[in-house]
Specification:
Radius of gyration: 21 Å
CATH class: Mainly Alpha
Largest sheet: none
Distance between the termini: 74 Å
Structural class: mainly alpha
Order of helices and strands: HHHH
Shape: elongated
Helix content: over 70%
């Protein structure tokens, strides 16, 4: 009687592992795509050479908390989060440069 119980558990782990792998793949995609949502703000500032209405305090806060997320991801070896935060930091720095130049 013990064997069917073991087999049932083994089957459940395989299914869970496959689902986990799918989520990992999705997160890698999101790590690259999500930061691109902020790219429009940087492009807009540099194309128009105008940062009126763009808050230096808000984007400075994004950078500060981005570093917190990055170091958390680094400490826990969360590669998708590290990638996303590095990309976000690049975009946030570009926006801040634009604010300083054209604000």
């Amino acid at each position: 009687m013990a064997e069917p119980h073991i087999q049932k558990h083994a089957h459940r782990k395989k299914r869970k592992k496959a689902s986990s792998q799918n989520i990992d793949k999705l997160m890698m995609l999101v790590a690259f795509v999500y930061p691109l949502t902020g790219l429009g703000q940087a492009i807009e500032i540099f194309n128009r050479q105008d940062a009126t209405g763009v808050s230096l305090i808000a984007w400075g806060g994004f950078i500060f908390f981005g570093f917190v997320y990055f170091f958390y991801a680094l400490a826990h070896k969360l590669v998708p989060l590290m990638i996303a935060q590095i990309l976000w930091l690049v975009i946030e720095i570009a926006v801040i440069i634009g604010i300083v130049l054209y604000g």
